[in-house]
Amino acid sequence: MDNNQQQLVERDYFLCQLSDLEELQSIELEIDERKLFAIRQDNQLYAYWNSCPHLSVALNWGHNHFLDPSKTHLQCATHGALFQISDGLCISGPCMDDQLDRVLLEQDQEHTYIVAGQRLPEPARNLRQEALDELNNPSAEVIT
Asked: CA geometry: angle at 35 spanning 81 and 137, to 5°?
């Protein structure tokens, strides 16, 4: 694929039914090696690509674990940045005033789908793997 051409979500993907999630519960999904998550707050679903705007690393602490200890904000496990659930705005941390990339959703009665045609982000970085690769091959160029 041409590197200058943006990849798009090729089709609608079923995400979940709102009733599948309890308040502040999240669900993860992967589309074309890009991870995303959705979280229920106040009977609404909010979905974001699982990539912090600061370092392009995954946000979650573990499987389906995206919230800070107070369960009021999304939190990046790498550097602690806090994001509002409703709009993905960073309110604390090195990416202050930046936003998570929202995943467009569509509802059909009770079912929620990820909408086709939206831009796929770059895959999230794996800093641990990058460090291991550098240790194993010190002469290799590191992408920052």
From this structure: 80
Backbone angles phi, psi at 105, to 5 degrees: -120, 155
Q: Which amino acid is at 126?
A: N
Helix (H, G, I), strand (E, B) or coil at 91: strand
Nearest-angstrom CA–CA distance, 131 and 3: 25
77, 64 Cβ separation under 8 angstroms: no
d(C-alpha 117, C-alpha 138), whole Å: 40
Does residue 7 belong to any structural domain of this protein?
A: no
31: its two tokens: 């589309």
Determine, yes or no, domain membership for 43.
yes
Instruction: Give the tokens for residue 143.
Output: 């992408």
> Is a pLDDT exceeding 70 seen at residue 140?
no
Distance between CA atoms of 78 and 68, rounded to whole angstroms? 12
- CATH number for the domain harbouring residue 66: 2.102.10.10
pLDDT in tens, 31-49: 998 999 999 999 999 999 9
Domain that holds residue 103: 13-136
Number of independent structural domains in the chain: 1
Q: Are strands 111-114 and 105-108 parallel, antiparallel or unpaired?
A: antiparallel
